[in-house]
Amino acid sequence: MTGNIENFHSDERPLVSIGMPIYNKPERLREVLEHLFAQTYKKMEILISDNASENPEVEIICREFEKKYANLTYIRQKTNYGPFLNFQTVLKSARGKYFKWQADDDLIDSNFMEECVSFLEQNEDYVIACGEPRSASGDLVGDKRADFTQKSPISRVLATYTATSSRLISIYGVIRTDALKQMVWAPSLMTYGGDRQCLAVLAYLGKIAMLSSTTMFRYPGMSNVSYAPSFKLFYDRFIFAGNAMRTTLQQPVYRDMNFFYRLAFSILCALSVLYDSLTLFFLRPLIKKIFGKGKKVKKMLLRQLKKIIKPFEQQINKHDAELDYWRGLVAELTQGCKDESEKRKCLFDICHEITYPRYKNDLYLNPNSFSGQKILDLGCGPHGGIIGFENCEKYGVDALIDSYKTLGYPLDEHPIKYFNARSEALPFENCFFDCVICVNALDHVDDLNQTLREIARVVKIGGKFIGQHNFHEKPRVCEPHCLKHDDLISFLCKHGFECERVVFQCESLQDDRYYYSFEKKSDVSENP
């Protein structure tokens, strides 16, 4: 990736705030500041917060540059109040559209700011742009396969927890200031392991670019944050681990996320704090002694973590692909609608005019087929297929119900009780329904066996399971199961059902479509 700086005029350029939280390291400070003022991008403000450095050389260097450059502000704290407040001081003082934390021992190419700002100005779906991390000798460092550009926000968050630490350098890239201000800040975000936590929240808000057109140089053996030397930090890590979990659960940007995901992320945050702390204080010397730099152990742990995450990520990608389909359908169906109310009316009318008639005809039903009964549309989607059946209690279950509402579907206007739930864990009592309907949804579920057990559990003895299923040859992102009609019959019979009727309805180049009807003859407990 590279930013295109053509026609990027200086009078239109946004202000960039560069925040330097420093402590007691004058060795490379002068060189770092010289690199900043040598940038081809000039519309910058540089904010330095000195966390009460004991080495007088630090203040001497900063005062020298402050006198020379009007856009540099140097703040010396009276006492060392820890890294969190030091990082926060420079961020709170920032006035720019973009913000960059600058370590006091890292160097950047002269075109770093130019390339990063240009890229962000032209790519609104990206929240961070950073140069590639290289060693002092110029070698590319870190996991080259780390990718923070996935379409799924949750996939990007997971990538931050499986990336090697050198790829987390993007937290020192150019960041949209408004994204940083959406975060709930707590000390756990600026402690050991905090770079992952902070980057994870930003990754949820947007993609992260690593630009090959510019570079950030990393120097080994030098700390990048301004910690006062104190063994008490180890004890603090356990406190911060608990704070990390709470902070993640409280993040406003995660509010629309399923609670299970938020909880999983909060646990990962806590583990990252403890892992980085333990390796720093106790395990790192041992690992180095046995395994050199510990790369073998780290790679092994990352491989195992990726194996654990893979099914989780596949589920996320499946849901994202399904939402993309419905999002596109909304745009197509409501094209020409003048306002939101007209759009909602259009989507509501589709239920009565298209979806319900299709359910009724394809499933060989009539409006009074379920009179006096309770029926469930499993994997119902947003179009209310059972909306027209009369004199019955209608329920709908879909794992994306809340997302459908966000897309604009007027589900609250349907005479259907909708539940945002997975088919593998239906929120109903045993033997609750007289009939479960499932139209082209069984191949979308994550665990087919568990779904069938749940269907058998909630259907009454003598109740029905009817539906329509498309059988395809190869798995797809949204349809991971390639179940044939004879396999479906076998599965359902094992779960207490007896096949009443199977009808071959359609053959196409992509799928064969079947109608099926089953009656529950025995309880699922009798057919383990």
From TrEMBL:
Gene3D superfamilies per record: Spore Coat Polysaccharide Biosynthesis Protein SpsA, Chain A, Vaccinia Virus protein VP39
Q: Which residues cross the membrane?
A: 259-283
Q: What is the official name of this protein in its record?
A: Glycosyltransferase 2-like domain-containing protein
State the Gene Ontology terms under molecular function: hexosyltransferase activity; S-adenosylmethionine-dependent methyltransferase activity
Q: InterPro entries given for it?
A: Glyco_TIGR04440 (IPR031042), Glyco_trans_2-like (IPR001173), Methyltransf_11 (IPR013216), Nucleotide-diphossugar_trans (IPR029044), SAM-dependent_MTases_sf (IPR029063)
List residues of the Methyltransferase type domain: 376-466
Keywords recorded for this protein, A-Z: Membrane, Transmembrane, Transmembrane helix
For the Glycosyltransferase 2-like domain, which residue ranges apply? Answer: 17-148
